[in-house]
Amino acid sequence: MSYDESIGQLTNQTNKLIMRYLNSKLELHDITLEQWIVLLKLSQKDKITQKQLAVNVDKDQPTLARILDILERKKLVERKPNEKDRRAFCVQITEKGINLKKQVTPLLENMFETIVAGISDEEIEIYKRVLLKINGNITIQEKVEK
Questions:
Q1: How big is the CA angle at 112 (ends 110 and 115), to the nearest 5 degrees?
Q2: Which keywords appear in this protein's UniProt record, sorted alphabetically (predicted)?
């Protein structure tokens, strides 16, 4: 069996299952996983530029702008002119966004407890280390290929 079949396809399948599961539960709070990730990052580091936020959430500028448009319509975030650079905006989480985070965080923690049920802490640590190594290998290869 090839690495593509044994690692690539299994990783892809697992990612899709996790995304579908999380989105199905987040839907009850009128938010998607992509929107949640942006909201979570803003709750950790508020009042940052869209450019900084794009790096933090690993999204390109146009994709992040669309997500922010949606979050702004839902009154979960606000964009304000950057005092240091008039061409840029600072993004900040609103009180409504903070309250949503407080509601959703325990829900997600419970969901992840379900996802990792029957898996030891040691196995989780090994899994995380392997994922970080794979991510590092890909990052190095991307730099080499540029």
A1: 115
A2: DNA-binding, Transcription, Transcription regulation
Q: How far is 105 from 40, CA to CA, in rounded Å?
A: 9
pLDDT digits (tens, 9 = 90+) for 74-126: 999 999 887 777 777 889 999 999 999 999 999 999 999 999 999 999 999 99
* Domain CATH for 25: 1.10.10.10
Has residue 95 been placed in a domain?
yes
Whole-model pTM: value is 0.84
Q: Which residues pair with 79 in a beta bridge?
A: 91
Q: Which residues contact 85 (CB under 8 A, 6 or more apart)?
A: 49
The residue segments making up the domain with residue 110 are 3-118
In the chain, the amino acid numbered 79 is R
Distance CA 79, CA 50 (A): 9
